[in-house]
């Protein structure tokens, strides 16, 4: 094992089909009924997926409005993050990540032998803009990764602040990777029309969240011509499998289906917010943060205890229980799942009241 990799731990996901899954920020229903599965019977599984990948990119271009020549499809955003790190980073290069943020940014930088600088968000999870600008000037990072909206906080950063980061990075030949995995829940991205105006900006999008295609592993990288040409030199030629590409293409060619699906999810997000507001009013010191995603974060000292309590009742949520963050993250689910969550949270609240 390379020295740079020592200390890394696997990202393990335990299969739990008997649980109510409110932990992974996935969509809570399937759109497979909107797909003509009969077409898949004609899939040429003995051929490499060149044609299906091209059709997928074309469909995403029509759906998103991005020029097809400025889109690279990937095996989920995870693969695209890996390819970005491979393309840009030499051993010893400096990479900035925010804390908390998506853990795969740091892991991929470490794999490439980069020096990772973690910069903590403010207490309210806003960007520490002045600190970031000062650190960019002195340490000259090659890359800055950030998710917007942020995972796990749900925070949506102001356009003007991100513009300042892009400008500061340009002065030191750095690149901003803006991961917009949850942008559909927040509304229109202010950078959708600006990405080609910046020589040092990459957007990441995914079909795993608002589009409900997590199992297909479809991600998209959007950037200017120069970045696309460079990254295309190292991208695996057949990285998106034919079945995923064909199903994804069918759904992307039915924007009305995806639009209605998003409205259903937004309704459930609002319902979840009401349930969690009711819960935190009963818990001393607990704070529910506003969200522009399909999940909510609650800061609380008993994060692990609540997660364990819900797990015993077949409800799985995500908890963070370290020096950086003591919190739970809960994703939106169906009305039935929310009803069970509400009942369990009420039970916890009654137990909590007796303890204090």
From TrEMBL:
Residues 45-344 form the Aminotransferase class I/classII large domain. Its EC number is 2.6.1.9. One of its GO terms (molecular function) is histidinol-phosphate transaminase activity. InterPro entries: Aminotransferase_I/II_large, PyrdxlP-dep_Trfase, PyrdxlP-dep_Trfase_major, PyrdxlP-dep_Trfase_small. Keywords: Aminotransferase, Pyridoxal phosphate, Transferase. It holds the Pfam family Aminotran_1_2. Its cofactor is pyridoxal 5'-phosphate. Gene3D superfamilies: Aspartate Aminotransferase, domain 1, Type I PLP-dependent aspartate aminotransferase-like (Major domain). This is Histidinol-phosphate aminotransferase.
